[in-house]
Design goal:
28% of the residues lie in helices and 4% in strands.
């Protein structure tokens, strides 16, 4: 997979970096575990995300956003995923 700048994204490396910020169980990266995050209430469109993270503090969110900004990895914020507009749909490149 490539990021928005066209650079290759190494998923294993990304997961390892995220696990320096979050506990391992808060970094979801196995395909089957990612399935609940592939769509919001609009289930006609689905895309499995590269990784899903579950931060518990503002500082964790800041560090995750800084990492993704540095690596040019797009981020989709997700709340309860009850929307019907596809707003929580993962992007193809991240």
């Amino acid at each position: 997979m490539t990021n928005r700048a066209g650079a290759s994204i190494n998923k294993q490396q990304l997961v390892a970096e995220l696990q320096t910020i979050l506990p391992p169980q808060a970094v979801i990266h196995e395909t089957e575990a990612l399935r609940p995050y592939e769509c919001d209430g609009l289930s006609a469109y689905r895309r499995v995300p590269l990784v899903t993270v579950l931060p518990e503090s503002r500082e964790q969110v800041v560090q995750i956003m800084q990492l993704c900004h540095r690596r040019k990895i797009p981020v989709v914020a997700r709340g309860a995923a009850t929307g019907l507009s596809g707003g929580a749909l993962p992007l193809a490149d991240g």
